[in-house]
Amino acid sequence: MGSAFTTRVACVPLGHARGDTSTLLEIQMHHPKNATRGLVMAASVLICFSAQAADRSYTLAISWQPAFCETKPNKLECQTSTPARFDATHFTLHGLWPEGSSYCGVSRTDKTYDTSNRWNKLPEVSLNNPTRTTLNRDMPGTASYLERHEWIKHGTCSGYSQQDYFSGALSLLNGVHATNLQAAIVKNIGKTVNVDDLYTAAEQDYGNVANSSIEFICSNLSSKQYLVEVRYHLRLPANLPQRITPANLVDPVTPASSNQLCDGPVYIDVAGVGQ
């Protein structure tokens, strides 16, 4: 007769030491009574390897920070915004979201802190100094502990260490900064542009697949549609690429709702709340 048991296995990101950044998988296994611990652990390793080695679907969400600050003017990063700051003229990182899961291996306490927006109570994210410096520039929301929220909700399900998760997301964002889409946005700061023109710029970067794989997110403010975010729907290998290619773009697994999508004229906001 076989017996069933459930075990929790820490899947450590490949190439990294075991630590609190490992991903916990709960695995139900059936084995005969005389099964050895070694057999069980070997099966667990194979499951972990498969979970990390396969391509996976993500959403890369990048913000147009001036417009975001129109919707959240009391955020510290918005109160300190200036036209000279990096995020006044560059997309910023919102997050890299693995599709289909969230809060992997997260304690009930930390999940409660996160869902109640008490992000300052969440554990600090461990990064090397260069990555921390770049993250503070490219994710202004670190002033409000956004990186802790993004790790707890999304990064814990990625299979990566905190260092690899954020450095990988920053590399993808850096690639976007070199695109025709970024140039089109900067050219039209303080102006209104049709969303079709933004798709045309994205097509120059990625081809026709951009039309179905990239979403422009708007908020209606002062009788205008403000561009607040761009979402790239991606299929990425375990070794995250330095930049997005057409081969990485896929149809959305979790598309934005129709009332979030930009339609027609879109305003590209200037840094400074109320500008």
In what order do the strands lie side by side in the largest sheet? 4-3-7-6
What about the largest sheet?
A: 4 strands, antiparallel
Query: What would you call the structural class?
Result: alpha+beta
Number of helices: 10
Percent range for helical residues? Answer: 25-40%
As residue ranges, the low-confidence spans are: 1-10, 12-53
In terms of DSSP E residues, the strand content is 15-25%
Give the radius of gyration: 21 Å
What does this protein structure show overall?
The protein is 34% helix and 23% strand. It is of the alpha+beta class and 275 residues long. A hairpin with a 2-residue loop joins strand 6 (214-221) and strand 7 (224-236).
